[in-house]
Sequence to fold (1125 residues):
Amino acid sequence: MLKGSVTIKDGCGHVPSLATGDLFFLLAWLLWWQAGHEDHAGPDPPRKVSAALKQGQITPTELCQKCLSLIKKTKFLNAYITVSEEVALKQAEESEKRYKNGQSLGDLDGIPVAVKDNFSTSGIETTCASNMLKGYIPPYNATVVQKLLDQGALLMGKTNLDEFAMGSGSTDGIFGPVKNPWSYSKQYREKRKQNPHNKNEDSDWLITGGSSGGSAAAVSAFTCYAALGSDTGGSTRNPAAHCGLVGFKPSYGLVSRHGLIPLVNSMDVPGILTRCVDDAAVVLGALAGPDPKDSTTVHDPINKPFMLPSLADVSKLCIGIPKEYLIPELSSEVRSLWSKAADLFESEGAKVLEVSLPHTSYSIVCYHVLCTTEVASNMARFDGLQYGHRCDINVSTEAMYAATRREGFNDVVRGRILSGNFFLLKENYENYFVKAQKVRRLIANDFVNAFNSGVDVLLTPTTLSEAVPYLEFIKEDNRTRSAQDDIFTQAVNMAGLPAVSIPVALSNQGLPIGLQFIGRAFCDQQLLTVAKWFEKQVQFPVIQLQELMDDCSAVLENEKSASVSLKQ
Amino acid sequence: MAAPMQRWVGRGRHWTFARVDGGSCHRREAPTGSTSNRIRGRSSVAQQPLYTTQKPRKGEHKWAAVVGLEIHAQISSNSKLFSGSQVRFSAPPNSLVSFFDASLPGTLPVLNRRCVEAAVMTGLALNCHINKKSLFDRKHYFYADLPAGYQITQQRLPIAVNGSLTYGVCAGKKQSQVIPKTVRIKQIQLEQDSGKSLHDDLRSQTLIDLNRAGVGLLEVVLEPDLSCGEEAATAVRELQLILQALGTSQANMAEGQLRVDANISVHHPGEPLGVRTEVKNLNSIRFLAKAIDYEIQRQINELENGGEILNETRSFHYQLGCTMSMRDKEGKQDYRFMPEPNLPPLVLYDATSLPAGADPQQVINIDQIRETLPELPSVTRERLVQQYGMLLEHSFTLLNEVGLLEFFQNVIKETRAEPKKVTSWVLNTFLGYLKQQNLAVSESPVTPSALAELLDLLDSRTISSAAAKQVFEELWKREGKTPGQIVSEKQLELMEDRGALEQLCHSMMEAHPQVVMDLKKGNPRVINKLIGLVRKATQNRADPAMIKEILEKKLSS
Fold:
């Protein structure tokens, strides 16, 4: 029953006009895909890309070039800070050789990926969207980057973010805000046209959410198949929800943080953004596992690779609905989709329980204290001495430190450093930091209790509403926005649990809405299995990036064609 | 890296205060704030020497000094505490720096097993309770040679606590008696060393060398049970010997492997403790004692003259022999301690708690480390006293000089001479020569085998002890001759021919009739003059006892 009601098909008869000529190339690429398929395979939807590579229907170099050209044509989205064209083409060439010799490294060989610009990439500038690290070229790869490369993935570039990942809009980096590709989708444009209040289309573009908005936009605009984000309080799940993607935050300790420039060490997790759950599982399979360079990764053997069974039956599942997540600020549309999703599980035989996470309301304040204290500590290394920005002032070391840090960090970062140091002062430590740690424990215990009561997976909203226009978003400051936008996501980080945002449906405005599934610690596979089942039920529509898509709408309305699954 | 490591840093005036003049560049931070429990009573073991001012005024009572030490010992390990870069003294600047040591963003600490084992070993040797679970914390301050802006240390829950260190203080008339004393150990914590700042005043530059940044340190915090410079010096010396015996630190103060800060206050016994100062930059045991005694006297004088003691950090100026305020303008630093989120709690096991089937590479077993503990200096001393019948103070001397014990044991191994004889020769003659020429045992021109051969000649009565001294002096000249060769070349063999000696005595008596007359008149002491003359005539080759016997026989006949 939900299947019919949540899957919002575009029933609109007329064709929207294009916002910019760039979009043509998005289509051109999709058409090319289509053409490639027609050349080889007949009337079926395009083959999944990994299979296509294996079968030689397309070469990694061709794939890489197409993505590069899409990156150029979608430059206005501001998704990428650095495009590593040469690196990617070279990797593609090597991948091509492997395919020719029948020595493919696996599902990720030859697959274009993007990486958030707070992961260290050897020889490629890594800025964290901050003046502080402008021009900083790390001499080593983050473990997760290395693992992707070891699997043969092609690194297309480094994606935009809020400075040092502090934000929920991808609007507060030195390279400017990221634009949500859905702003230019047929689905959204048509809805807007129906509303006479909407004028000035060009300036009404939407935020992606954040802080991994660049990665979300990159995947959403088809410039790559998967992207790494980071998730400290929801930074992967939030933009995934706003951009109609799968946004996965693995269990803390499952994936190495080595090389991820930290925001909050005790909560940071590399996140995965893909167009479908299976793709996320493939990437997780490549990344998960202990890392001798990260002492917080766990050694316990975890089932690998992360093959997700197709769940035929959910009758043995118990889905928990945390009652504290039903808050007045939640938009009615999200609320209704949430309850429909619960109904769906129930109607398919799952047990759906209301559960209580009693300390939820204290979570965001607690998160704020713990986040800022670690930020204050982690940012102490940026003093202009060893690397990164240094001011011209040299009257004294202290003056140099002060000016360097004033010039290097934006207001948001400086504000968090200031409050974090305040909380760590001897006279405040017990009242703020220690208390926050105790509350953190209570929040983590809330989840443990919920899971101990027999719940397998929790179902919650990911965000309060769909993406808002940039001009709307910046009416509130970063801190207020973060507090609102992380409301459903940060508690998971404090508890170290795995969570995934799955796109469910389009809002009345034609924008994606996501729901979040939260699993038991290190039950990532179970979580993704449930998410995969749900994904299949809701049939979330493919983003339609311009009018010419009508020509292949038959193809594009089939979710499989555009989610371009890596898997067969 | 975007920029070379060694770059200038514009420096503020106050940096000057943190410097030892000239080249020395070490700087340590103020104590963690929890280092000495000032309220706790003093150990009953330590006896307080009482100080008086030069001119005690009427009704005035005496002063007592309270001294606590914080000792940083560099762990002897191949690699640093949290990174894989090598640990080596005097390597080219910034040649031993990993990405982590330079605090490149995204790098994470990985604990070095060897450093943990060294801490456990040291803790056990110092009678500490080893915490099965300990934690790491970040201590924040900005300094150019601290790249991360914080030091990883163990503030809340250190690896070892509540130990003790027994040391011996010389007392008695000739300072020859050794009195054992004990100082309590509050804790031992693992922490990172900082880099080094080299200040170039001429160019207003500071050069940073990160070779030392991240090297593992054991911070040993002593309770304020000490009361004077000498106690502190001997306690530190004992700790140094223990660390060296364990191999957990080379503990060479000149190379900065052992660094001591002293917290000093004075008060009237029975009254609350006084305000303390901290004295830094104590880079030798001698200066440690000097600085403490100077500071105690300075505080007494200050108080006697109506002044007050500031809770401040002072630096010892070894050329002037005084302590000087470092005038830290910033005032008390707040280190904003925070748990280190990248390191899980450090969990140690013992035989009872070791999980079954645990990978020995992944766990540290305290009991196993206990079994590998080598002989500690106190036990070595006891053994020397037992085995060789030497005095306790002699055993102290043997251990205190680097290499002397080994030298002694090598001589013992090769000679037939009595251990007492060996002890006397090594401690008096050999050590005397070394001291006189300011040489280390390793620089000695006399090898253990040569001394052993010499003592054999003495033992077999081939030479007299006076001749032996002569041979030793020849050996010291490094002419490559063996004692035997020297003896035969110089004809130093003992005169075994009684007839010849009788002849010599006879002619000596005839040559000195006045002495013989005095003797016969009843002045027996003048016989020594005759003995001396005979010995001289034999070039010290005759046994004085035999000469005396012959002379007495002749006189009485």
